[in-house]
Design brief:
The complex is a heterodimer of chains A (617) and B (203). With 617 residues, chain A is an alpha/beta fold. Chain A contains 18 helices and 27 strands. The chains are: A alpha/beta (617), B mainly alpha (203). At the A-B interface, strand 20, helix 13, strand 21, strand 22 and helix 14 of A face strand 1 and helix 5 of B.
């Protein structure tokens, strides 16, 4: 090919200051010989004159505003034959010198990658875009990112449903095969439409998380809200007619999912992740709250989830007699399962299950637990129904080693522990061991993120009773602080190691998240997390013996849990502190293994596999 | 001010924190002394005044300085005081007068120090530990303690969760642990042992 390998098409309509800023930032990057075409979509301000003075761009002047679709198509048509095309809005600012090289590398990283987008942040730094999705229920495209604070989430390469064409790298083969933007649309939905058409033709749409740019959204149409909404709704109706059937056909299974999602509990957090992953994995879930009045957890669940996809799932009408229903929660609410085929999905932190849970589980068609540890416990307690291990996962878009870190400036080595104060998490063992093992003169610190909701417990008093040595290891606390879950990766990345010395775990999501962030972790070698903790990726903490589980939780009565070895804990703390290279390598191995084996998508795939088997039976 | 109805006593387990806070407190103390010392040098330059006159002037200008001094919150960080300029040689006849003048000045400084120490003791008895620390840090030109308490001695026991952001919380945590280094100030005169049973957190 003799011409440029890439053509950058920038559509402009009035608002010269935006175009000028865009071109200024573009000129400061490595364009690697790309041709830049500015399509002047019939501007009536100074845009034509100003463009005429810029020699390094080719201007394509259209006689009037033809809209986003026709304007971009004119640019694509004017691009050099055989070149890839990058569509850019004029209200973006490039902030990375090598943005084009990175997008091109991503686009050509596999033969089936056709369309590549990037992360976009608002001028104030909030994450505006990390791909898009659209649900057939509403046909209203949503940008991934939720205006969260940018902490480096979605920093890798991810396959996505669609991208916003404020910045889109399109391979020439895709344009040759499916043409430009669909003329059904004047503006809006044309980008989602293009990505769906590309997918239909066998091309993937990918987010290149290594590239971020600033998008002053709606810069060109600002101040004209009425016309914008009219355009939007017109395009939405067209899109719906065109794609609804195909979007609905992507569901292969339907499940009534009875659980909890709007409370700060482990079940709720994991329920939200599972519902999102199942939706992407082709399972049409209908959500209903399984707790409430006359259950073990009487509060009524708030309606808003804070997540568009989950709100839609929650608003779906429930079938009168669902084929398959999953109750995901404690075993004593299995009886509320409304499906013809009933699945109970639960977990517990001790070596068995209460009689009532087993009784209700025996009325299910099958039972799911996340770990072999729990499978064994259920069977030993008299479960007679089939039981399957369905592990949970971690969101590696938010928990990975590239997440922003805010490390301590003094260079102290920091161990982090997250726990709710109580018997199971064994905080006194950790605090005392750390204080005994280290001296205040050593540059090492334990940071405990502590939650206590129990009105009968004074954490301050309990710590005082430990009579810690002032000259011993230094400890700081983050007491009863609630961080947005999506920011926890930044907490993990800001420390050097993670410690979990609990007596028993039903899964241990914080541990998995910390490991996914690349932290070397010390964790009790007993419990459900043994599914993903081993010597190659963590530091298993020896258990002296199993002891009766004594705690306020009535479910533990009569069962046992671990008695972690304090001497071994001190040894491991010291070892990790003094063998940092080894520890770092183990943390990196953990991050690789979490990303390769333990994502929520992996969890959803196992569920889909199980649903397929049920459907086939 | 924190709504602590009673002063919080510092236990052995909190000594660590007390040591950390000692630097600002000490610096704050030194700041006040530095002001007196600096004024003293100016006084020494006025050699023509007699012993009694000098002692009177010692009290007068200090009162004036106290009125003119900026509020504690606005004070700049402590800076080391320049060493006093060497005195010019004096005739033997003046020596006695000068010794008397200097003795008077020492007496005035001791009185000021005594007064300052008793003020501190009163504050120490009335303020809770967090307020006392706040006060000392502000006097020393350090930022106040973070709103979030990172050690048990300062936190309010609660069962409510407070929403927080990770970046700001960590920034507050690190800055509370590793406050900016103060320039070294000259040691302040030691005050007499405290009769009160309240543990020392100042030095």
């Amino acid at each position: 090919m003799s011409g440029p390998r890439t053509t950058i098409v920038i559509l402009a309509w009035n608002h010269w200051q935006l175009t000028e800023r865009c071109l200024e930032t573009l000129a400061a990057t490595d364009l690697e010989g790309a041709e830049v075409i500015v399509v002047d979509n019939g501007s009536t301000d100074e845009t034509p004159e100003c463009l005429a003075r810029i020699s390094w761009v080719r201007t394509l002047s259209l006689p009037k505003n033809l809209g986003f679709v026709r304007g971009n198509n004119a640019g694509i048509a004017a691009a050099a034959a055989g070149s890839d095309v990058v569509l850019l809005n004029n209200d973006v600012e490039l902030i990375q010198r090598d943005w084009l090289r990175r997008l091109a590398a991503c686009a050509h990283s596999a033969p089936d990658v056709g369309v590549v987008g990037c992360r976009m942040v608002l001028p104030d730094g909030r994450l505006l875009h990390a791909g898009t999705y659209i649900m057939p229920d509403t046909s209203w495209g949503q940008q991934v990112g939720s205006l969260e604070r940018d902490i480096g989430q979605h920093g890798g390469t991810e396959e996505v449903e669609g991208i916003v064409f404020a910045c889109a790298y399109i391979r020439r083969e895709v344009l040759d095969q499916i043409g430009g933007l669909a003329l059904d649309f004047e503006s809006y939905f044309e980008d989602t439409d293009f990505c769906l058409r590309a997918r239909r033709a066998g091309w993937k749409t990918v987010l290149c998380g290594e590239v971020t740019l600033i998008h002053d959204e709606h810069g060109s149409t600002q101040g004209d809200g009425g016309a914008m909404m009219q355009l939007f709704q017109g395009s939405r109706a067209i899109f719906r007619r065109k794609w609804r059937r195909e979007l609905e056909a992507r569901y292969h299974h339907q499940v009534l999912w009875q659980s909890i999602m709007n409370f700060p509990t482990g079940y709720a957090m994991s329920c939200r992740e599972l519902l999102r992953a199942l939706e992407v994995g082709g399972v049409r879930t209908v959500y209903r709250y399984v707790y409430g009045p006359r259950t073990v957890f009487p509060p009524v669940e708030p309606e808003q989830t804070g997540d568009y996809r989950l709100n839609v799932i929650r608003a779906r009408p429930a079938p009168r007699s669902p084929e398959v229903a999953v109750v995901y929660g404690q075993g004593d609410v299995f009886a509320r399962n409304r499906g013809r085929y009933k699945i109970g999905f639960t977990m517990l932190e001790v070596d068995g299950f209460p009689r009532e849970w087993v009784a209700q589980a025996n009325r299910m068609n099958e039972v799911w637990v996340p770990s072999e540890f729990n499978r064994r416990g259920f069977v030993e307690c008299g479960l007679e129904r089939p039981i399957h291990v369905v592990p949970l996962g971690v969101d590696t878009s938010y928990f990975h080693p590239g997440i922003a870190a805010y490390p301590n400036p003094a260079g102290e080595f920091v161990f982090l522990a997250l726990f709710e104060w109580g018997e199971r998490k064994e905080p006194s063992l950790l605090i005392r061991s750390f204080n005994d093992e280290f001296s205040a003169r050593e540059p090492v610190r334990l940071l405990c993120k502590v939650i206590n909701r129990d009105p009968t417990v004074s954490v301050k008093e309990e710590i005082r009773r430990l009579r810690l040595r002032p000259a011993g290891g230094k400890i700081s606390y983050l007491f009863n602080l609630e961080f947005p879950h999506y920011q926890l990766g930044a907490l993990y990345r800001s420390v050097d190691a993670f410690v979990s010395v609990s007596r028993g775990e039903g899964w241990n999501m914080p541990l998995m998240e910390a490991m996914a962030c690349g932290l070397p972790a010390i964790a009790t070698d007993w419990g459900a997390h043994q599914e993903f903790v081993h010597e190659g990726v963590a530091y298993p903490l020896r258990v002296r013996k199993l002891v009766p589980a004594r705690a306020k939780c009535p479910y533990y009565d009569g069962f046992r849990w671990a008695d972690p070895d304090p001497e071994h804990l001190r040894f491991l703390l010291r070892h990790v502190y003094e063998h940092r290279d080894e520890a770092r390598a183990r943390g990196e191995a953990a991050a690789r293994e979490m990303a390769a084996r333990w994502t929520w998508e992996d969890a959803a795939r196992r569920i889909v596999g199980r649903l397929a088997a049920i459907a086939a039976a | 001010m924190v709504n602590h109805p009673l002063p919080v006593k510092v236990g052995a387990g909190q000594r660590d924190a007390a040591v950390r806070e000692a630097a600002p407190r000490e610096a704050a103390h030194a700041h006040g002394d530095a002001g007196v010392r600096e004024a003293g040098h100016r006084e020494a330059a006025q050699r023509e005044a007699g012993h009694r006159e000098a002692a009177q002037r010692e009290a007068g200008p200090r009162e004036a300085r106290a009125r003119e001094a900026p509020a504690p919150l606005a004070r700049a960080p402590v800076t080391p005081t320049a060493p006093p300029a060497p005195l010019a040689p004096v005739a033997p006849i003046d020596a006695e007068l000068q010794i008397a003048r200097l003795e008077g000045r020492v007496a005035a400084l001791e009185a000021a120090l005594e007064r300052r120490s008793s003020e501190l003791r009163v504050l120490q008895q009335l303020l809770c530990r967090r307020d006392l620390t706040h006060w000392a840090r502000l006097l020393a030109g350090l930022p106040p303690l973070p709103q979030v308490a990172f050690e048990t001695g300062f936190w309010q026991e609660t069962r409510e969760l407070a929403m927080a952001e990770v970046p700001e919380t960590l920034a507050a945590l690190w800055s509370s642990l590793y406050p900016p280094q103060l320039p070294r100030s000259s040691p302040s005169p030691s005050s007499p042992a405290l009769p009160s049973p309240i543990p020392q957190t100042v030095r």
